[in-house]
Amino acid sequence: MSAGEKAKAKAEQVVGKTVRKAAHAVHKQSLEAKGAALEARGRMRGAKEQAKGSVKG
User: Fold this and answer.
1) In the prediction, which pLDDT does 57 show?
2) Which of 37, 38, 31 is nearest to 8 (CA)?
3) In angstroms, rounded to a whole number, what is the distance separating the alpha carbons of residues 10 and 1?
4) How far apart are CA 2 and CA 51, in angstroms?
5) Which residues contact 51 (CB under 8 A, 6 or more apart)?
6) pLDDT score of 1
7) 42 Cβ partners below 8 Å, 6+ apart?
8) What's the pLDDT tens digit per position in 1-57?
9) What is the full DSSP assignment across 1-57?
10) Are 14 and 31 in contact (CB under 8 A)?
């Protein structure tokens, strides 16, 4: 797993979680959903990179 892709995945997860929690605090459901989607995309990117690394290694 390349360091750049790993960092990008982790950054998406952190930003998504932050957006989701902030939106929840101010009762913005659409923004909360976007944050959850961003967080999920980060988790999927991380899983993809781990799978790619296990196939190569």
Assistant:
1) 64
2) 38
3) 12
4) 12
5) none
6) 57
7) 8, 9, 10, 11, 12, 13, 14, 15, 16
8) 588 888 999 999 999 999 999 999 999 999 999 999 999 999 999 999 888 878 876
9) --HHHHHHHHHHHHHHHHHHHHHHHTT-HHHHHHHHHHHHHHHHHHHHHHHHHHHH-
10) no
Cα atoms in the 13 Å half-sphere on the side-chain side of 53: 11
**Token pair for 50:** 């781990």
Question: Tokens 């797993």, residue?
Answer: 1
Tokens standing for 5?
Answer: 């892709």
Could you report the per-residue pLDDT of 12-26, keeping only the tens digit for each?
Answer: 999 999 999 999 999
In sequence order, which residues have a C-beta less than 8 Å from that of residue 24 and are 6 or more positions away? 32
